[in-house]
Write a structure and sequence with these properties.
- The chain is of the alpha/beta class.
- Helix content is 42%, strand content 18%.
- It has 5 helices and 6 strands.
- Strands 4-3-2-1-5-6 form a 6-stranded parallel sheet, with helices on both faces.
- The protein is globular and about 35 Å long.
- The model has no long low-confidence stretch (mean pLDDT 94).
Amino acid sequence: MTNIDIKHACTFTGHRPEKLDAPEAQVKEWLEEQIRQAVADGYTDFITGMQRGVDLWAAEILLKLKKEGNPVRIIAAVAFEGMDKGWKDEWEQIFLNTRKAAFEVHVISRYPGKAAFLKRNDWMVDHASRLIAVSTGAPGGTQKTIDYAVKMGLEVRKFHEVN
């Protein structure tokens, strides 16, 4: 059961930091612009997939906006329990802080593995009306999420590297 307002829900997809071809600062700046625009457009529910990189950077921005008094509800979509195990302390701390501050936490699969991440990605798209995406265009989970969002009729905002 969920209390997500799909019409006013936005979700994210993107690569892990080591797979991005743009500087981290540039990606974070763009993410913040997109999230602030989504808030201005009336979005209140923000679903993060809780993965290292784009998902947790978005979560950090949402935590900041929440502290500023913006009406944002963070929805944590956790692929499976323990997905954060073995991460560096910095990432694990962001994961734990986000989970603690979340309006709702949804653990999507009982079983770890690639299938759990794909199932989580579909779940996020199924519960949102806008997707904010940071992608190199390489095949994989991020591209599959973008393709599924397009198929399902979501508004997709994609990062374009500024040179």
